60S ribosomal protein L23
Amino acid sequence: TGAKNLYIISVKGIKGRLNRLPSACVGDMVMATVKKGKPDLRKKVLPAVIVRQRKPWRRKDGVFMYFEDNAG
């Protein structure tokens, strides 16, 4: 709580590949820094979970889901 803007550094469980940025979706654990928010949270690497994403994804029952914004 208190973080307004996050910058994702890495995604847990994703192996690296040269020149490829790691991608995360809803439910993924990421390591992020706080760009805007409380001063005691800034300038640290913190774990976060993606809870909403704007890009549509398909559920196993065939429904496509997406949200209005991205949030973690």
